[in-house]
Write a structure and sequence with these properties.
Layout lengths: L6 H14 L8 H15 L11 H30 L15 H18 L6 E5 L6 H10 L4 E6 L2 H11 L5 H4 E5 L14 E4 L7 H14 L5 E6 L19 E9 L6 E7 L9 E4 L5 E4 L6 E5 L6 E5 L9
Parallel strand pairs: 1-2, 1-4, 2-3, 4-5
Antiparallel strand pairs: 5-7, 6-7, 6-11, 8-9, 10-11
């Protein structure tokens, strides 16, 4: 069993102790430096399986993910406030956000993955957990899905107020981006309107919360609708929750992509099952385009190349009950 004897785990625990000692996690030189060092540490290639960590480290990981989520929210609010203060179009200044390039890469990656599994450009997309700086929606709407409407859901009214201010002066996005202050668990029939639903990494901060949200989406999304989720793999799972493909009951898992560069999040794409398919099974397109049922443990690994920066990816087809890490 992997526990605190592992050097990487020990180093991450030291980061946790320092981060948890801060009175608040608002952006500052010390906070920014420490989180940057933590992210760089977690980006190092390490085949650690966080599910095999001892209980004490599991608890530290859960607390660290919540601290990262809190810091991320404060960072986004800080920069969204700055961007909203510009007299001209705030979207012209997005590059001041320190991780903007990461969002460009992640959004292109997600667009490419989505394009592999959809035939038509979606008319309406929902993004759940959009936050005060909805960069994924903005980048996708601006560069990749230029006719699609984006409905952004966040439980925090102040986050939606900041986000609305960013797009209100843009003649195009102000007509295609909408913000709803709602707990997604209270959204039911409206979910049937969206061909694609994106679920932010920090919606559902632990396994139980995440599974409840996924089950809710499975209940109310239209059959055939696409669900895009963000997960984490290896040591990056100290920063974000992990979505196991077999957590996606009610969906057929199409692919899982694990970045190996500065993009932290893994990307999972799944399709809402129709009533005729069995939960726990997945499909891939056969040679002649026929639906081929794949058992849960079937996995195929191949390279996925992102044309923006030639990032190497791992694609795992179908759901997996047992991870090999």
């Amino acid at each position: 069993m992997v526990c605190q004897k592992d050097a990487l785990v020990q180093k991450i625990c030291e980061f946790y102790e320092k981060i948890s000692s801060f009175e608040n996690l608002k952006p500052s030189k010390d906070v920014n430096t420490l989180f940057t060092q933590l992210v760089l540490t977690c980006m190092s290639p390490n085949p650690i399986d966080v599910t095999k960590l001892c209980k004490r480290i599991q608890e530290i990981r859960s607390k660290l993910i919540r601290l990262c989520g809190e810091a991320e929210g404060l960072l986004e609010s800080h920069y969204s406030t700055i961007l909203g203060s510009f007299d001209d179009n705030p979207l012209d200044h997005l590059s001041i956000f320190p991780y903007f390039n990461n969002y460009l890469k992640l959004s292109l990656l997600e667009f490419n993955i989505l394009s592999q599994h959809t035939e038509k450009v979606p008319i309406k997309i929902a993004f759940v957990g959009s936050g005060p700086l909805p960069l994924t929606s903005i980048v996708l709407a601006s560069y990749h899905l230029t006719t699609t409407s984006f409905h952004n859901y966040d439980i925090d009214p102040s986050a939606n107020l900041l986000a609305t201010r960013l797009v209100s002066s843009d003649p195009d996005l102000s007509k295609r981006m909408f913000f709803h202050t709602s707990n997604i668990m209270d959204v039911t029939s409206a979910l049937k309107e969206y061909e694609v639903v994106f679920l932010a990494a920090l919606v559902g901060m632990d396994k139980e919360e995440k599974v409840r949200v996924i089950e809710h989406l499975a209940k109310y999304m239209n059959p055939g609708g696409i669900l895009m989720l963000r997960s984490a793999h290896g040591s990056r799972a100290f920063l974000y929750p992990v979505v196991d493909p077999c957590d996606l009951r009610g969906f057929e898992v199409l692919s899982v992509f694990h970045p190996t560069d500065e993009v932290i999040n893994s990307v999972v794409i799944a399709r809402k099952l129709s009533s005729g398919l069995l939960v726990g099974q997945s499909f891939d397109q056969g040679i002649n385009g026929a639906a081929v049922m794949l058992p849960c443990k079937c996995a195929e690994i191949q390279a996925f190349i992102n044309p923006l920066n030639q990032m190497n990816m791992i694609e795992e087809l179908a759901a997996q009950e047992d991870h090999v890490v």
